[in-house]
What does this fold into?
Amino acid sequence: MNKFDLAIVGAGIMGLAHAFHAAKAGLSVAVFDRNPKAQGASVRNFGMLALNAQAPGVQLSGALKSLKYWQEIAPQAGFELCQSGCMFVERAPEEMAVLAEFAQSAKMVEHGTSLLTASDLGRYCQVLREDRILGGLFSEQTWKVDQRQASRKIATWLKQKYDVSFYFSTDVQDVSLPHISTSVGSFKAGHIILCNGDEFVSLFPDAFAKSGVTSCQLQMMRTHPQPSGWRLQPFVMGGLSMSRYSAFASCASLHDLVTMQAARFKPYLDEGIHVIIAQEPDGSVTIGDSHAYENGTELARSSKIDTLILKEATEMVILADPRIAQRWLGHYAYLQNAGSIIISPEDGVTAVSQTNGQGMTHGFSIAEEVISNIMH
Ligand SMILES: Cc1cc2nc3c(=O)[nH]c(=O)nc-3n(C[C@H](O)[C@H](O)[C@H](O)COP(=O)(O)OP(=O)(O)OC[C@H]3O[C@@H](n4cnc5c(N)ncnc54)[C@H](O)[C@@H]3O)c2cc1C
It folds into this structure.
């Protein structure tokens, strides 16, 4: 029977981040995933390392710490990571007020922002709807990782560099340490970490239920690759994102923006929509998303949501080829007002869930802390 110091359930970014820190610290590590390759939230997202969305303090410093690990790993594992930046565009006076106020406070932290007039926009992004946009805020501290490649490449690299064992197509069915029962047989481990995304029914369901964690469902789309020459460069977002991201939470002017949105953007707010637009390395454009909280079971995709998202996206960006090539749903673990939860259902078992939809941004720093606590 194979025996490891540490077994990890889930080969999404949270599982891989824990495997990285544990293997680097000298532990023998096995990672189990029930799918033939990672296909959960970690490959269904925007690939945004959203430093721009973090409130100063613990949030921002955790995101910065994680970024350093992405920068260390990406060139070795061989996937793309670029400092794309992020453009918040303003189309209403309430949005202008929030961005102006945020730009003042952002000078004092590490957001690296520039407040732009309409005539400045083209220096940062040439495909914006300049006829609709009054100005914007460019934040240089936002990075784009190739999310469709990263999980697979990190797993291959961890195997080669640190001898981490990967068991794909292997469902972990029961844990009673040191024994782990899986669909391909039994294993032994000194400790087990559950990074099972928002799958809370198969292992320790009572502990997850007690923690209050639920899930959030998001709706996403991707265009065909745009013609060569069409380049977005930064992530593009609008006012609906300003009222969602905690980076803006301390702006007094946010109140007026929220009031305006309640009157004018009700269909969007009802579906939890804020629109993010990102270009992928193959030229395609990822556009999302909506948020349905605590649904428990998967809801059907909604064409009404797609229409709302596309309407808002095309008010900000001129797509050369607006045809949609892919539509999908994604899920992540959710707990209101919590960035992450770490629970211990029994001795030797740790469950780690990123609960605010920012596992790409925070995964490596959370995992570093968890592994350090386990080792000391
Ligand atoms: C649409 C969308 C957009 C997002 N955009 C961003 C973004 O731009 N930036 C950002 O920072 N975050 C973003 N997020 C959030 C981020 O993707 C998640 O926080 C992160 O991917 C969670 O990683 P995970 O490893 O916990 O989960 P997952 O990637 O879902 O992985 C969990 C894995 O566990 C496996 N598993 C579960 N149970 C078992 C079992 N019993 N046995 C074996 N295997 C099991 C599953 O097969 C799965 O592969 C987004 C999320 C979504 C859905």
Summary: The first helix runs from residue 13 to 24.
